[in-house]
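TL;DR need structure tokens for one chain.
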Amino acid sequence: MTGTAALVRLALRRDRLLLPAWAVVIAGLIAASASAIAELYPQAAQRIALGVTIGSAPALQALTGPVYDPASVGGLTAWRVTTMASVLAVLMSILVVTRHTRAEEETGRAELVGACPVGRHALPASGVLVAAGANLLIGVLITLGLAAQGLPVSGALAFGGAVSGTGWTFTGVAVLAGQLTAHARTANAIAIATLGAAFLLRALGDAARIEPLSWLSPLGWAQRVRAFAGERWWVLALFAATGLTLLAAAALLARRRDLGAGLLPPRSGPRDAAASLRGPVALAWRLQRGVLLSWTVAFTTVGALFGALAHSVGDIVRDNPQLAGLLSRVGGGAGLLTDTFLAAELGVLGLIAGGYAIQATLRLQGEESAIRAEPVLATAVPRWRWTAGHLGVALAGSVAILAAGGLAAGVTHGIRIGEPGQQVPRLLGAALVQVPATWTLAGIAMLLFGLAPRLTALAWAALLAFALLAQLGELLQLDDRIRSLSPFAHVPQALPGPVDLKPLLGLCAVTMLLVLAGVLAFQRRDLRGD
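>> reply
TL;DR here they are.
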């Protein structure tokens, strides 16, 4: 462990902007939601009526979990944002741990650090400590933010502990994933796939009221802390014990591998490249096809879940004006409740697809940082062609994963109501209208890569900001000028239709300008430099 303190200071120096931003956004999301719920439902009778309806709606419980105390503002806040805030804390933990552990080995910086008097476990320990400290800060800010609004301190503390505890558990998952593979991108994929499985387990368990299934997921534990509803403090021990167990397992596995290698051996490729790999587009496709397949499978699964649950929303809450108003505020629609629900959830898929667009575009930076771009660009391949290959995969891949989600939702919803021939094209179109907004994030990532590659993390910050504006902008009654900063605010309502193409064409034009500016900037700068 020698040198851990110095590596922690280095990691904090590198993440001095990102970590506080994550903490403030997550805590601010919860505080703002509590304030909005208190304003929208000031009377206990209103909150109880809403809670009774939520309790009989499997679709809503699948998305946000059960509500344990609908009579209180804190209880409704815990129902509304525990899962969302926990997922954000998990994503932060995964990215932080991988950035300061596996990515350091992949780029060779860990070997340079290891040449100094630094212990074998100092590097992973520093990543764990930074992630743990960030989760602790999130928990403290959540507690202070909710207590400042007059909510019970015990409930606020339990809420903060649930969110930070979930992040701590997945800190262990990320460290363990980093021992299995030699690539940071694959380690992130393994950890995020684990998060997806945890979400599905919780969603299925809550929707079907199968408690043992929900208890298999750390996201289910966060709900079952029961903040503001008779807190179960012992559940927090599950987070602590699971995280420590995963870290211990990662430490044991680390002794069985070489620095820079993973326990899973890389697959040996053929001696001679196929004829299909003779161009930069084919190379980009070969590098990114595995990630695209994973995203496609995930979107198909989630889309099918949304489609299967949609019909129950209309059946259960059609006569409840309070819940109808809630769904309209979240989904931004004024049509049938089922269509509003589907439009809202396909909008969520659009936001998530923005993450894929950023990840695929920033593969350019990964190739450049790993010095794999230089051998390619040393040939007759111009920079713009190399860039176009990865951008093409990012843009086309965004279309593919959204189409997969829309098709899956259309098939399951259509079968449920006996109209598959009508619902498949409707929901496919509702998913594809999200594409131009998703492309805008790829354009932002490209612009940052071309102008200032050291600031490409701002693309992820932009996605987070757009997600908050899209999901909570109307609920918090933000000014239209602020909400319009998000490209997703300009996506027209596709259900029930028709679709206004003008804003979509405008978003495509913005994306084109961002991409051209990024490509031109990349043409003018040195490799691995600003």
